[in-house]
User: Fold these one by one.
Assistant:
Number 1:
Amino acid sequence: MRRPVLRSLVGGAAGIAIGVLGGMGLTSVSAAGPTSVEASPMLVDATHVPPVLTLRGEPVRLRFGLVCTPRDDGLPCEGSGTVFVRRGQDGPFRPFALRRGDESKDGRYYLDVPPDIAESQVGFSYYAVLKDDETGASVSVPSGGADAPQVSVPLHDPVAVPLGAHAFGAVREPDAHAVDAPWGSGGGDVGLKGSPDLGYTGPSSFDVEPDGTVDLLDSVNERVVRWLHGRHEQVLLGAGSAELADFAAEPNGNFDVLDLHDTLRRYRADGTQEWAQKLADRTWAKLDRGAAVLQEPSEEWMPVAGPATPLTRTQQRRAAQPAKQLANGHGLLVDRVGDGELRVAELRGGGQIRSWRITSETPLGEVQLAESHGNGIVVVTRVYTDGRDEFVVLVLGGRGLVQRFSVASGSWTETAPLARFRFARGVLYRLRTTQSGASVDRFDLEVPQ
Amino acid sequence: MRSFIALLVAGFALSGVPGAQAYHRFWAGCNYDAPTFMTTMTRDAAQDYANAARYEGYQWGGGCWNYDDVDSYPNDPPQVAGTHGEGGDCSGLTFKTWRESTDTWRDGRYYWHALRNVHGPYDAAAFRDGTGAPNHTVAKATAGVMDAFASATHIGMVFVRSLYGGDQIVEAKCEACGTNIFYRTYRGDSAYGGVGRWGWTG
């Protein structure tokens, strides 16, 4: 074989370099017109925080934000809209035009619900259609429209649960550690990724199976690590990314992983993917067992799968429910109101069984968990100031607070947003990470009678 | 000469790879035009602006994107500026959405088009501390639409509050996450502080 001479090497290198640059230059000439690169697709979206639980006599103002294609003059779009409202949850809707206000901090478009509807004992249901008047593009919120409207229900004689001012620093230690795993990629380890400048991610979520097996979504190592009685095994996930994903273990051994790109993936027990399905709405807050996802902006629980197959996005929207389904078969409405109030109502067959009005002098953050427990409800929420925060566990019974304690909130890594706690077999589990590793801790609870 | 011609043809062929074309089309559109001074700045117009940056990717230290709903240069190395990737980083997205000046002493409103490549002078920690004339800290409980939560490493803007007490946050989160709206619990997290922009007009 003849050795290449220097001249041909230089010629070849020059050729490929000029070829690539020339080709890219021609491409840019053909593609760099003023509109082809920055042309905006027609965008329309909406924001809305539903007043799911109200107090009797409380005036109800529905507020909506309209999100459109950005305008070159930097102004908001000119929009309009209609809210379709009805007393209760049956019968025809009545249309009411939205008014456009001067301020957009809480939503520029609003409707003061007429008193004859707002003061109904059975509440009301509604959906809105908003339109960008310039482009004609419209959006419905909730996304299921008349098929799955949002609800607003008055609390019936709620049990008052005043929490007062929170005393930070008096946290309860766990009763047991179900899992203690160091950082790493070995069999019983959990992966850690990140840097001081970027922050760290580790296990993004977890779940507890009926037999007590704790499943940790080890997103960095792209696997599920299962712990039972001190033993562990791993299930490698065959596809998809699990970073900051939520996770649920299904009773038949399958796993559900809800990722950052709004896709729910169903894995078989061996880690092979069975199916993947996009969510109906633009984002999610929480994944529950049974492939139920709290989706937004609808603020409704949508089933993403039937017994065997995923649901289309249209099917998800039509099957949406404002209430979370509890293990006892009832529904649960949750509404964080203002800075320091949490309203909770338990439903059976659409009727309200009982409700609680929790008030706090210290601001309340997110509701991490709300599940049925004995003859009551267990709620985990966060209390915070600008410099401190802790979780508060509340066991609610028919006559009031059965149990209350605080739990440390600090975590070395970021998780899925509402994945710090799980409730299974009458026990509360908490996922926590430190500089040295991850743990799942147990807290035993009193049982409301 | 024969090798020059043969590899010239190969070079043209390589330049036609779709990924390279998308990347080059994107970066060729980025510019350094002057911003437009504005007298108004509403929170919902800021929502429009940030919402349109969704799906356009994440670039450490970056600030240029188009509106084709695709990250034209995905998977570029984290914490490396200057790779010409598409998208802002968290503080770059906030700076442009909040219509700020590259001069920290100016508190006027400056509209930056999406393809104007600018990051601004603030990182997440500077925003958290309320650094710069247009910025200030706010009590987290009062933070509303298009206010923000910032930590030492990250900042995200409140797109809208949410029923379960968290917030839908519009943010350039990470290379794998891109820019999007995510449900987050920054409001209650003591690692994060509340931040606001002076000068909203509606």
Number 2:
Amino acid sequence: MDGWVGRILRVDLTQGDFTIEELDPDLAVEYIGGRGLGSKMLFDEVDPKVDPLSPDNKLLFVSGPLTGTGATSGSRMTVVTKSPLAGAIAHSNVGGYIGAEMKFAGYDVIICEGKSERPVYLLINDDDVQFKPAGHLWGKDTWETEDIIKKEIGDSWKARETQMLYIGPAGENLAKFAAIVHDKHTVAGRCGTGAVMGSKNLKAIAVRGTKAITIADGQGFRETVTAILDKWKKDEGLSYFGYTGSAAAVAGNNKRGCLPVLNYQRGTFEGVDGLNWKVQKGLLVSRSSCFGCPCHCRPEYKLPDSKVGERHVGLEYETVALLGSNCGISDYVAVIKSNDICNALGMDAMSAGSTIALAMELFEKGYLTEQEAGLKLNFGNAEAMLEALRQAARREGFGKILAEGAYALAERYGHPEFFVGVKKLEMPAYDPRRLQGMGLNLATANRGACHNRAYTPAYEAFAPPERLMDPSATAGKAAMVIRLQDTVTGLDSAGLCLFPQAAMMPPFQVPDVVAQLEAATGAGYNEEKFMLSGERTWNLERIFNLRAGFTKADDNLPPRMLKEPLPDGPGKGQVCRLDEMLPEYYQLRGWDEEGVPTSDKLSELGLEGLL
Amino acid sequence: MKKIKIDFSKCTGCHTCETACSLQHIENVVNPKRSRIRILRVGEANLPVIAGPYTEAECTSKGIVVFGGQEHDVCVLCRASCPAKPIFKEPDVDIPLKCDFCGEPPNPQCVRWCTTEALTLVDVEDEKKN
């Protein structure tokens, strides 16, 4: 096979054994790889009703056919499992170098099954797969874990080339929003995949490979990639966001009135200047990037008290908004520190920020006392936030409650209406009262409230006037959301990154993606097949969720977004009018009024008989 | 005379140069471990190192240089392919690799694919004039 490396590493943690299987080429072409192939394998192998933290759940790491090839932004790998936070299908996407290294070791997929009796880590060198004891790593943060494993590898050159995934204390303690971390700062953040890894007593996976990825049409691939590189170098959107990272969106979204503020109670923030990316400019020392990405969107910072060689990798917009304005915090350095805690202890900065914002609202309104929380959790108290994050990861003190996530927290204190999320996954940092299309996407996204399933701000917020869709309108949003959801599913499957595709002008240049995919694989891809694969995967994920017990009632937004009008900004007085969009969405998706794919749609996608 | 100019401060560690080198020298193959340029990370710095000639003997002296407050093992910065160093050798067979400028006239693909201008092709005479 070209593009794919054609092998699956199946790890049985219960037995401490592994097998290497061949990847079915037809399946690979149909689902592309990454999120698509991972969803298909999870669907085929795991009962959707499985307890996510039981040994029967599986944890899949899936690269795409373009991962590691040098295709523009081809760094991505998707972690697929059933989410302990949402109970829905989980797919959490990570960049850096790990997806590429997996393929150089000869694996498109690493699938972890069962549960190890004792903590272990996997050390993979091409075909050599070793189970190493990890008792001494248990309790260590992700940064220490990387350093210790590198020492244990011994050979400094091999250690340098070894890429790792690991969990921190949050994953070990089964915090519901625990993340899987790579390269100390690059995170498969959402959906609580770190808790699934922790439930399997799997501390880390370290991979080094010396093998090749073959390309079907090397000459054509080189010509295609160089042409795209030249185009990207000149692209206005990429030159800007490539320099600043996504954090530059904070000021603009504040102006637009879609920034989450004080647990999504407001859309603009008076302390926004403290979170402006220009503040970080003084702290910025260099830029870094993921494998094969000409976008270079990760700034690296030095703090005034940083030691030599100490890295603080760029804040994303979501992090700045959810750990910053959403918690009433306007101090950029405090957000860098809280982001560092999330990365080191292995937590999703988004869900963590959202959960703490909710705790702060409960505290401010008198439903949570200082005595009970052990912390003075008023909005804007950065010190309390940092301590709350540490406690959540270690499940100490009030952290025992925080670690269950925002939904459980709101339920526990009798105020479910304060929870802002979908399918129990905390909401990202785009207020759907201001961006109606985002509301529809959040309500229908299979993994729960996720902006990346369909990045509508590319059309509803950041587009130049001639391409801008009125963010307050609902007309035409269903079709736009569906097209984006299918496109992004294809990108996640191919192993490419969403960010440059969303930042470039115009956004989502699918023909370039397909040209690279076809040159690398020679599998007969065209735009139509690419989009069809995205749609197929989307429907398959939907069926997984339906089988897990989700219904139309779960395609909903929290009451704050539907009933509490925005009190400020350009969207003042608006709520999200989901009911104007959802029926059309179902219809255009080829689903019935209950949101169930029709048999016609299923046969069109080759999914007949699955419902 | 053409030379490849390396500006460490501009390298972001995307490894695109390695894939370009591999595709140039081995038909239809991407394998950074067979590339004649490697990006080596030390602390927060990414250092592009281009393979120089093979040397049969390992250095008897070892050095550490300090710049930017960061210690760098001279062995990491060294361009040579040598018995003590596992990079710049074909994996498995250990045949040494050396940069060939992608032919004559020089058209190095690592430079062609580098989008940050960490790698540029410069004319040495021009450099002197500047």
